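Cross-check.
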Amino acid sequence: LHEPYRRQRQMCIRDRCYVSTPVRSSVTNELTVIVAAPLWKDGVPSSEVVGVVYLVPDENFLNDIVASVHITDNSAPYIIDKDGNTIADPDASVVCNQNIENEATSDSSLETLANYHSKMRQGESGVGEYKINGVAKLLAYAPIEETDGWSLGIGVPKSDLMGPIYTGAFVTAVIIVIAILVGLYISCLLYTSDAADDKARV
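Predicted model, tokenized:
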């Protein structure tokens, strides 16, 4: 088995659902994400795991989710994995090709943002400020539950958020977005369960 399949099988056997970090196929060069869930004996949840059911969604489904996030006209939502790699962004060209912490070692202007990314990888949530290309921005970030260490970040120019009321609305919007992401994750798992008869693997 390839590593993503091996990983999802191990997690499901442990009675857990699993969403893999996107990897680029060496055959098709497309990004692959695997959503997997345990298959229960006689369909009884939390009983004996007798197999694994999985779904491989379209390669752009994560990018499409973040692209739909619209806090302001200039907001920039994205997702990084546990290693700090960008795994979802409206700009598909940076997916699996960008790691801000690594880039900050040779570009000091990214140092503040890289520090926030380090906090994101540690599962922290919060709001901070940074400057890039001379533009002051706010970054709200929080972990995405039930994933392999993913974190959502949304950067917005401070000029788009005037005063504490707007800043508070920004933080609230981020919380809502996270809830949507988790809901979509759960929906994917329910879809795999409905497709169990055709896609089960022991």
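The chain has a mean pLDDT of 77. The first strand starts at residue 18 and ends at 19. Passed to J.P. for a second look.
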